[in-house]
Amino acid sequence: MLSLLADFIGELRAAGIPVSMSEHVDAARACEVIDLADRATLRTALAATLVKDGGHLPAFDAAFEVFFALRATPTPDEEAPGGELSGAAGAREGPGPGAGAGGGGALSAAEIAEMIFRALRDGDAGALRQGAGEAVSRYAGLEPGRPVGGTYYLYRTLRSLELEALAERLRQDLGAERSALASRLAEDEVTARLETLRREVERVIRERLVADRGSAALAKSVRKPLPEDVEVMHATRDEMAQLERALRPLSRKLAVRLARRRRRRKRGPVDLRHTVRRSLSTGGVPLDLRFKPPRPAKPEIFVVADVSGSVASFARFTLHLVHAISSQFSKVRSFVFVDGLDEVTHLFEGVEDPGEAVARINAEADVIAFDGHSDYGRALSAFHERYARDLTTRSTVLILGDGRNNYHETHAEVVADLRRRAKAVYWLNPEPAAYWNSGDSVIAHYGAHCDRVVECRTLRQLEAFVGELA
Amino acid sequence: MTLDPRAEVAERLGLAEVPPPRFASPDEVRERLAKSDYLSDAAIASTTFLADRLAKPVLVEGPAGTGKTALAKAVAEAVGARLVRLQCYEGLDESKALYEWNYRKQLLRIQAGRTESGGAEEWRALEEDIFAEEFMLTRPLLEAITAEDPVVLLIDEVDRVELETEALLLEVLSEYQVSIPELGTVRARQIPMVFLTSNNTRELSEALKRRCLYLYVGYPTIERERDIILARVPGVSGALATRIAQVVRSLRELDLKKAPSVSETLDWARTLVVLGREEIGDEEAAATLHILLKYQTDIERATKELLGGRARA
Question: Fewer Cβ atoms within 10 Å of its own Cβ: the N or the C terminal residue of chain B?
């Protein structure tokens, strides 16, 4: 058990969850006092001792499911290789028959569908598990030894189960509802039940994959990045939802931290003039130092964001974050573009939650002048022409985008002029630095005229940059 | 060397004997909490069980109104202990959290002593005298440590204190002791159960997190929420409770500024019972939605999504 625990913690650390030595000891102690055969308790015990951040729990769960997977019962068409099961040794199945147990012969498609429908209708966990096991045997087409995480198997199984038809049957079973509220509730109920089916199928697939390749190998394939480490440009829909959720507390925390930092700077630099005046009464010895009042230089921020398809979500996150801490700036003005440019500052005015304003940008901003492909040259020229005179030595310009110009003209000289007028020009690029200047990326042309080009692939990097700015 | 953490802590505190564990199993935690009208789930019960067995504090995190504070109260009731509560706020300091010298009383003592003629000898005696426990005002943390009767210490909304103040808690949390320069170290006379709650408005320090077990309390599953309603709201029928739980689940799925909490769910259930409703139709929902949702924009969105855009009655 102890070496298994050490391996598990190794996996957690590899996934980015910080686990200290003393937490490792606590986990080992917790294992002494609980019933190891009870999988749910084991999960809680490990989570309570090893994970100290709610946002890390999904990553923990993914690793736990693999390391402490239930023993998959071999089904006729796949020979489960023995001895490769690690961690499963002590784990006991919950109530209900085992996965695939009792399913000696292959059932027909209709029988499986019927079984799953009944299980969902009656909320019978045992039957659902069995049905999911049957479905996976029949549809997933698991290929032993392939280094995959099982997403494709899940997709294949669910597609064959014809979820739409299943949902329709469930809906009918719940009965026709007349009031709007009741029908909405019924709809949500169906969605929730299908979600349990999806989870069950996912679990069965994972069990079989563990049996096939061992937990350490599989853990690597299913490792989930922490929300703050997800690459914004390549996030899946689930990850995107997770990011959205992570963003709000993140911006709130950042705001609190910055406000605190500002407050602590109690006094400004020494006021020489005033100090010398005071020193006259002490014979010219500056006993009593005088300070200038702290006048924190709050920067003015101009955000110019590319909102074309490829980088839209990155722009949304950045706008959200910058506006969430707008109290740290003397002024924030936002502009969005694709091949035309539009100011969207007014959308953020008088709105409590910047998220709402960001959501309205898509609908209300007029950003397409020609064909709807990013044209940095044209957009930046437009910005320069219309707003460059508003820039002062206190303004900071943030340009957001991947610098993929679709082979249009760059007009980099505009950026050079912006930099002359403003305090600083930063370019935030959501692409990994390794991809810069490949294909139609012309980031180097612009970068030459920026104070810095910052790689912002993840929320963590974005937060660090915005924190520095304020 | 023993492996039992309780015995280890007891030895460090110099207790005569190792206090017996409060719970025999996670299931027992669950049953006894249920008797105090707190419906836990597997995670809550096992973590509470572990907190007792490992003699460690629990850091409870989660959205507002999901029963974090109620958990500490219920545990106190279940084990028959007194609840000592420290409500945290910005600006909380040592003198409000730990102890403070009662300087008025000290002053009186000095003045009372002055009538007699005194030398250096007497001053020393006096000095020793005025820094005795008698002249100290105990604040929640010290109170919990010095208590003779069983206590459960609740440090509420710990994320509100400044990062520097957090350090005050560390000694209490890891060693169950308080060091007072004039008096020496005060050790606990028992192994108290400690709960910390946080609404996650800021990141807590690593040092604090490391000393605690972590428990995330999210919104309950639909079954648990129904059971909570049944347990806490007298006169509610099973069908109504299920319906209420369903509506609340659907509301939480929406992207709202503030999702309804469990306590708001209970308020809503009570309202419906008082109004004598057995069913929730569109009318009832529209008329009472403001109990669940606290922002006008949220109410509008929920009305649009759930009730098909029907205007409020």
Answer: N
Parent domain of B160: 5-90+139-216
Rounded-to-integer distance, Cα A135 and Cα A148, Å: 19
**Which chain B residue is nearest to residue A23, measuring alpha carbons?**
B210
- Same domain for B32 and B15, yes or no, is yes
Question: Hey, what are A328's tokens?
Answer: 């740290």
Residue A169 shares a structural domain with residue A213: yes
Residue A188 to residue B212, Cβ atoms within 8 A: no
Write out pLDDT tens, residues B35-47: 888 888 889 999 9
Residues B234 and B284 reside in one and the same domain: yes
- Listed in sequence order, the residues at least 6 apart from B285 whose beta carbon sits closer than 8 Å to its beta carbon are A181, B247, B306, B307
Look at A256 and B202 and tell me if their CB atoms are within 8 Å: yes
Q: Which of A15, A42, A67 is the last residue of a domain?
A: A67
Q: Please report, for the domain that includes residue B30, its CATH number.
A: 3.40.50.300
Tokens of B178: 């308080």
Question: With the CA atoms of A11, A15, A20 and A23 taken in that order, what torsion angle do they form, in degrees rounded to the nearest 10?
Answer: -60
- pLDDT value at position B83? 93
Question: How far A171 CA lies from chain B's nearest CA (Å)?
Answer: 15
Total number of domains in chain A = 4
Test B210 with A22 for CB contact under 8 angstroms: yes
- Grouped pLDDT means (10 residues each) for chain B, 313 residues: 76 85 90 89 91 92 88 92 90 85 84 67 78 84 89 91 82 87 86 90 84 91 90 87 89 83 91 85 82 85 74 41
Chain A: give the shortest CA distance to residue B228, in Å. 19
Q: Please state the pTM of the whole predicted model.
A: 0.73
CB proximity B254 to A under 8 Å: no
Average pLDDT value for chain A: 77
Q: Which of B50, B203, B310 sits opposite A253 (nearest CB)?
A: B203
Chain A neighbours among B 48-107 (CB < 8 Å)?
Answer: 49-50, 53-54, 56, 58-59, 61-62
Whether residue B188 is contained in a domain is answered as yes
Closest by Cα among B7, B75, B23, B31 to A29: B7
Examine residue B309 and state whether it is found in any structural domain, yes or no: no
Residue count of chain A: 470
Assess A260–B contact: CB distance below 8 Å, yes or no: yes
CA distances from A255 to A260, A317, A358 (A): 8, 15, 18
A-chain residues near B203 (CB < 8 A): 253
| Domain span at A51 | 2-67
